[in-house]
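To assess whether the prediction recovers the assembly geometry, we first specified each molecular entity separately, as shown.
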Amino acid sequence: MAESLMILAPAAGIAGLLFALYLARSVLKYDEGTDEMKRIAEAIREGASAYLARQYKGVAIFFAIMFVVLLALAIAGYLVFFVPVAFLTGGFFSGLAGYIGMNMATRASSRTARAAQSSLNQGLRVAFSSGAVMGLVVVSLGLLHLGVWYYILNWYYQALEPAARISNITSAMLTFGMGASSMALFARVGGGIFTKAADVGSDLVGKVEAGIPEDDPRNAGVIADNVGDNVGDVAGMGADLFESYVGSIVATAALAVSAGFGVPGVATPMVLAAVGILAAIVGTFFVRSGEQAEQSALLGALRRGVYTASIIIAVAAFFLVRSFLGSENMGIYWSILAGLVAGNVIGLTTEYYTSSSYGPTRALAKTALTGPATVIIGGLSVGMLSTALPVVIVGAVVLLSFFLSGGATNYDLGLYGVGISAVGMLSTLGITLATDAYGPVADNAGGIAEMSHLDPEVRKRTDALDALGNTTAATGKGFAIGSAALTALSLIAAYRDQLVSIAQKSGMKLVLDFSVLNPKLLVGLFLGGMLPFVFCALTMSAVGRAAQSIVEEVRRQFREIKGLMEGLARPDYARCVDICTRAAQREMVAPALLAIIVPLLVGFLLNVEAVAGLLTGATVTGFVLAVMMANSGGAWDNAKKYIEEGNYGGKRSDPHKAAVVGDTVGDPFKDTSGPSLNILIKLLSMVSVVFASFLLQNALMK
Amino acid sequence: MAESLMILAPAAGIAGLLFALYLARSVLKYDEGTDEMKRIAEAIREGASAYLARQYKGVAIFFAIMFVVLLALAIAGYLVFFVPVAFLTGGFFSGLAGYIGMNMATRASSRTARAAQSSLNQGLRVAFSSGAVMGLVVVSLGLLHLGVWYYILNWYYQALEPAARISNITSAMLTFGMGASSMALFARVGGGIFTKAADVGSDLVGKVEAGIPEDDPRNAGVIADNVGDNVGDVAGMGADLFESYVGSIVATAALAVSAGFGVPGVATPMVLAAVGILAAIVGTFFVRSGEQAEQSALLGALRRGVYTASIIIAVAAFFLVRSFLGSENMGIYWSILAGLVAGNVIGLTTEYYTSSSYGPTRALAKTALTGPATVIIGGLSVGMLSTALPVVIVGAVVLLSFFLSGGATNYDLGLYGVGISAVGMLSTLGITLATDAYGPVADNAGGIAEMSHLDPEVRKRTDALDALGNTTAATGKGFAIGSAALTALSLIAAYRDQLVSIAQKSGMKLVLDFSVLNPKLLVGLFLGGMLPFVFCALTMSAVGRAAQSIVEEVRRQFREIKGLMEGLARPDYARCVDICTRAAQREMVAPALLAIIVPLLVGFLLNVEAVAGLLTGATVTGFVLAVMMANSGGAWDNAKKYIEEGNYGGKRSDPHKAAVVGDTVGDPFKDTSGPSLNILIKLLSMVSVVFASFLLQNALMK
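The predicted structure of the complete assembly is given in tokenized form:
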């Protein structure tokens, strides 16, 4: 039964894509507004496409090199031949998901601005639909890709007996993860550097120095800023969550074999994901409200969609687990549910720490009274303090899913439970991502409204949509961060399984000492604990440097272009786009290489146990740091907005200027370094899994 | 032989104290300057003594409660009766070391200002001598205390056979560590909050808002600022390094038993430390230079003292290891040497990242051109990037000392090697601390010079001394941070030994699974990885809050006291001292309790394996975060100074204001949260060791 229902995976993928196509066409039917609006939207679209084309070209070189390396390993017998190919397709589909999402977003933003002229609800409709396209494309492509490969591999290995067959299939599928993660890391880091360099740079000169509003057309960085939203927050996020989604499924599938589940163990996460896609489609129909709805009603509408999908999944998963894994394994169901609930709860903690409706961000806003230094100290404190609850929640999910699944008596079963809790957490991704991805569209719509001098009421509406997006994005971050930690743990377990299975196949005697008091593993732990810090240093300083170039360029244009400040001349927007593009291309290489090279180096110079330490250390620190950076950034952003609402002196007061400093520091925190960490910790594990065989046989210290 | 030479430990302690007394008397012979200077020095001394008295009173309550708890555990049979007493004496001597150091410093600062009127070298002589008093008192009291206890315990357990005797002795000695660490944490956190609240608060109003110089007598926070230097940077640092010193020795001693060394294994670190004291005394005689020496010559003089002491120790340790542990264990000698060298090398990396003579801090200064936000992003990046080398160095020391000591064939021997590498690193503490502790004295001397309107040349000289102190402090930080990581690792090993030995004694069957894939340990790792972040959040936000109170108070005085700004009226200094005192008292409780309660809670709710995870996770993150915070803070400080030297616009330019924001954020980083982390990670382990027996028998999940 499980094997035949596996067809649901590609089928749901196709259904999701078709529904996304339907949504996309309905968005494109909307009016794009005035010629001015079209012109601006066109400029943003062109900039974004040009950037993405260049980024993909750069990434293609990396993929080509890795392909050759993997091919060489395959020829040397360390890998099966599917691996290099799967690496490519994983990367390709991750990039494709980001590209489609971005393409939709750039077409939807002017239409959202136009629709917001009619009403808030109309604006929401357009923006949300384009977000839903992105959400559905990400999950559908992910699942379709996995489903098709499953059938190809199943056909290829048909001569093998079932156990060996499924083991070979899941090993190969792990490699898609490496392709997807590599692509995602480039997209997040490159896009993140682009968007925040443009954002920080143009804000520093425009808002802080020149005292002109955000998105003012006199600011030369303003188109780059809007391009950045699309290449970073949309394309980068798409590639990122594609990676999370695929990663959680393949990691769980890889653990199915040692858990003793075989094919049903692989089918469970895949069919669960298929159910998730269908539930997301149903959920989108619940996101609607009256024409004159208030902002709070809109939030209710969004949440209704998510909760409907969650309930469908929670019910379906029960029957799914019972029929696939048997009623003796209902603990697996509770693991799924634990993940599903935990994702939401982490989201709530994020909201608590970052929303100006609650104490922490309000207290942070008050620190602005004593200047930027206290704002920075306060924001870092909020972020650091906010790590406690997510860690406790993830810890609880690990223990619950491990022990409820029966880990006390069957260790590998428990690990499978941990793995599938991440799949449960991400099962609603189709719709949660929709509520998340519409934010940048609304943000862009606001920019277009500002630049094309629409009625200020329109800007107010797009701002309301944007603010709503910040709240739903908080939940989205909960899912992304929580699932990253759980998936990374599953991958470490998969890494161990991989080592054991390689040793078995080659008749090698292998005693793995994964104890924290094994000095090599301990050194690995330290190195892993340090890696996320170095990674953040590289990405943040890249943003800082690129932002400085933008500052200098915008200042230069203010100085040299006559009549610019008076609105008589136009700035040279393309120049800033170009500066960001080149900076992002140049600066994304080092941090991405870190993720590939460090595990190989540690494995080669020390041994495979040290790599286990490295992965664990990086997962722990990466998770904590990611939460901290996301929440510090969010709190700064909203503290600034809270002051802009008229508190502590309001806009242009000294406290506001101090809060802007916090917000500016928070930009690379929450949109460049923080979200990239989620990818980093998984990519490290993926690389280690793929190279396990090589490292096992070639490490200097065995 | 080893047993009889153990007498060197208390003997060297007494010798060190006598020499410190001689130095102190020579400092006190110097002239204290004008009546105005005496009056200011008196005010600072009074404030500092009053604070310390209050702090010790608060801490006494904690010690009383813990004493009762430990006594109850002893009565219930979980601990031997020495433990509660040893806990008290450990805390007492740690506090005493801090008190003596502070007392000396407050008496030396006006004398340093007076001496600096004659020449730079005279100023150095006085300041360095008072630093040397502190350095020698810390190591001498530490070693004397351990030595005396050793003889008491040895006498008490004389009826036992040698193996059981030494095992009982080392177990009890570990408990001094817990007392010393608790005291140190309070002193560092409380003193750190005091000093940085005063510093940040008075700078924010004085330098940034009112535009008056640092230490200007019109600023109401200025006395509190100078009091803070004494209670934080002097008394706090003294208690802190006392803890490091004692901790490294007792942790190594605890590992001596399972390494199979018995008494000689305990004698080696203690006699090594005794040699270190004598070497430090010799070293002080090398710190002198010509009367008209330049700053660089002074740095040479300081380094000559340290290197002389290092060479003496390196030579003596060779013969010591050979005669105590036999020529078959010369690997232990190389471990000592690895530690000694590594401390210096970490110090060099600190200097590289934080001195304005090198690229990173210069590049950071340049970010000030684009405002405070880029300064913050830049400084965080420098700090994060700077974690790489110290982690690699500590990793190398762990592997070198483990394998050179013979860990490949005898695991426990390797761990002993790791432990003694920390003792080697700290063996020069008597003199390195002297070169470190004179900095705050020079800083205070500058404040007194400013407040009593001495010739600007004097202030320039004390600034030069202070700058020199920053360089030597960088090295000092290398030793403190590096040794903390190594000692914490030894303590985790000691924790495991303790569990095994308890189980053996009580006939319990114990299978410890310290694998990173043990879910309970893994959850512990996550919790441990998060703990330093929460700890920093608490301490930093405490500084932020207290600084805000100071800002408001200083602003109020400027507003309400007529004629203050014109220099016609005096501000109410005592009020600011009082605000800082109360804030520090109130705010130091929560972070300190965290260190005690979390390991107990984790051990009780989960099990002893989860505690091992907690300790490991906290050590990894705590170490990395401590390095980051120290170096970010140092880089910001020196980038600001670099701009003040006239670069990028110099004092009062916009870049300078931006750099001041960085420096202000860096203050709690480098002087409150960062150094406290070193203590935190050890205290967590100490608590776990002391409560191991209780947790082993009472954990909910076994």
